[in-house]
Amino acid sequence: MTSHSHDLRTELASLTTEAFRPELADIDQLSTLDIARLMNGEDAGVPAAVAAQLPRIAAAIDAVAARMSRGGRLVYAGAGTAGRLGVLDASECPPTFNTDPTQVVGLIAGGPTAMVTSVEGAEDSEELARQDLDALKLGPDDTVVGVSASGRTPYAVGAVEHARALGALTVGLACNENSALAAAAEHGIEVVVGPELITGSTRLKAGTAQKLVLNMISTLTMIRLGKTYGNLMVDVRASNDKLRARSRRIVSLATGASDEEIERALTETGGEVKNAILTLLAGVDGPTAARLLEESDGHLRAALAHAAD
Predict the structure, then answer these.
(1) Hey, which residues are catalytic here?
(2) pTM of the complete model
């Protein structure tokens, strides 16, 4: 065994996410229902671990939203499960919040191939992280969120260190205390979920915790950017039949207008839900609604207030 592999083995053994639980050594001999109960019980503790980090999560989100309101981008960077979760969260923002595909970006060590196939050595490369970020031409209004269950993955840590050196905002999301990733970032978030049901399988509780936090980061940031009206997705992009039906329902819930009025408003505004709501609630035409929203940086409540002035 080389000294490097011995050091890595020792390091992993010290991580909570990698800890072996002798009391679970015989779970393969339990009934499927009993194993399912055990796993469900493990998962039930994840929200409490996230709750312990809510002040840190909220502070990070406020910082992200401030930069994105100036045109910055949100970039997730991770390897393996962490990278896939970042790509997933980024890919869901355009249909949900009508964001430009370049506004929220998911980087996974090894590139798109790594979404479905393990790319040998990619997660161990800080240089690869630097190259991926340099391709985006990061600026001071951008944010890079490094994601790693262990908190030591070189790709994630390297991404955060490089982004910080370039003046971007940095967030480190890990599932172990005193992690290198959280220490490297301006905003460190450590959701400690404890050892996994299957030793070292951090796609389980750690993956669930990361998914919850990434959901919060993107969703709350978009709320702060005016992408919702109350709890309605008023920036939804109607790209299929289901979303077109949802658009009509959102306009109905926001305005109480008749089906005929809703169809007329959506037609006049080119299917833009936010604009249609504004025409109905403020009694303005499509071009006026577009102007009011532009002057209000896309915030519907502010546009409604301006229309009433």
Answers:
(1) 92, 123
(2) 0.90
